[in-house]
Amino acid sequence: MNKTFVFLLFVIVASVLAQDRPSRLHRERVRSQSSGSTTEAPEEHHEEHHEEEEVKKSTDKVMGSMDTLSALARVQRDQAETFRLWASQFEVFKNNVMKFMEQTTDVLQKQDKKIKTLQRVVRKIASDIDE
Q: Does the keyword section mention Signal (predicted)?
């Protein structure tokens, strides 16, 4: 009873702490917003570039910051590359399994022929003995 109570208490505390912690997406939004507001260009030709970055880092209430979207796009590209890699590895594995099955089938057919030949020989010997 005490162990169950302690376990339940631990689970409740862990879930409360997990919900209290800000999510990774929230941290990226806050980081991109704070870095966009603190960065200032010291020279004039950098100001034009800085204005372009501000446009890129603008936030949308629905979509989030452009940094977050670009990070998500990177993650999706990485996932797509991983899936392509897995697909190619699966094709290689499938081809190897098919080759193995063909080889196994060939061996089994050869063994079956040998067994049938031996059965005929045994029947022939048995019929010769009976005569």
A: yes
Question: Quick check: 68 and 25 in contact, CB under 8 A?
Answer: yes
Per-domain boundaries in the chain: 1-57
Instruction: For residue range 78-98, list pLDDT tens digits in order.
Output: 999 999 999 999 999 999 999
Give the per-residue pLDDT at 9: 76
